[in-house]
Amino acid sequence: MLLQILTLFPEMFNGPLRCSIIKRAQEQGLVEFRIWNFRDFTTDKHRTVDDVPYGGGDGMVLKPEPIISCLKAVQRDNPPGKVILLTPQGELFKQAIAREFAAEEHLILICGHYEGFDERIRAWVDREISIGDYVLTGGELAAMVVSDAVIRLIPGALGSDTSAQDDSFSENILEYPQYTRPYEFEGMTVPDVLLSGHHARINDWRRKQALLRTALRRPDLLKDLSLSAAEQKYLEEKLNETTFGNREEVK
Ligand code: 6GU
After folding, report:
1. Which of 65, 88, 148, 177 does the annotation list as catalytic?
2. Banded model confidence at residue 162, pLDDT cuts 50, 70, 90
3. Does residue 81's CB lie within 6 angstroms of at least one atom of ligand 1?
4. Residue 112, Cα to own-chain centre: how many angstroms?
5. Which fold has domain 184-249?
6. Which CATH class is domain 2-159?
7. What DSSP line would sit under 132-178, residue for residue?
8. Is 193 a residue whose pLDDT tops 70?
9. Is 115 annotated as catalytic?
10. Predicted structure pTM score
11. What would the mean pLDDT of 90-112 be, rounded to a whole number?
12. Residue 242: pLDDT over 80
């Protein structure tokens, strides 16, 4: 995958992309990053990227010409890429969107900054994405979040091919609790079923824990799950064990 990023702050991308799984994915040739500074596409002496808003008001607005000239340069000599604008006004980023993006050969992420950008930029954009209901100073961190979520889904990017499937949200369900050695830590022990060696029982326990955790922490996700009758019964019983208003987790 070719992942191109248009930003006014290319140096922000130095850290995260050079670490861990993202670094390895680049070394393996699974993804190639190209970071562009759209200030390099200005034509005036002062390299101006923003201007005052028509109609008045506070703040500055990103001009269309540098961003669109940069975009045209980025598209040249490459197969057409999907153009994504990072903006708090975009569609909320979800695992399903990460999966869609992971299937693309070429992604172009445009990071907005300052108070906003000229509305006409939107005519060149295929999709607008927000990473959550809060305001960041710019789209850079959002572009890194999106890149990370997408790259780890490219086949081969993770050590084993199953680890991306088991995660929270692969099926819109939270992950079950995990334990490693020691068996006892500060008086707390590991659930005995995990030491039983009985794989069917372990899988059953994990599925139930995942369901329970989802019901307690993210009840909004439950409505999209297809539960068996037995699973529904288990959840109802467990949730009834907690007194109303008790937000402690059921053990
Ligand atoms: Cl994509 N950009 C900015 N500036 N703020 C955000 C965001 C994006 N997603 C959530 N907050």
Report:
1. 88
2. low
3. no
4. 17
5. Trp Operon Repressor; Chain A (1.10.1270)
6. alpha beta
7. SSS--SBSHHHHHHHHHHHHTTSTTSSSSTTHHHHSTTTTSSPPPP-
8. yes
9. yes
10. 0.91
11. 97
12. no
| Residues in CB range of 62: below 8 A, 6 or more apart | 49, 50, 112, 113, 114, 116, 117, 118, 121
Residue with tokens 């099926």: 171
pLDDT grade for 169, boundaries at 50, 70 and 90: low
**Best probe residue, ligand 1, of 111, 114, 131, 137 (max atoms within 8 Å of C-beta):** 131
Domain ranges of the chain: 2-159, 184-249
- CB of 116 sitting under 6 A from ligand 1: no
Q: Is 141 in the pocket of ligand 1 (CB under 6 A)?
A: no
**Residue 214 above 60 pLDDT?**
yes
Give the residue, out of 101, 130, 144, 147, with the most ligand 1 atoms within 8 A of its beta carbon, to mutate for a pocket test. Answer: 130
pLDDT of residue 172: 87
138 CA closest ligand 1 atom index: 4
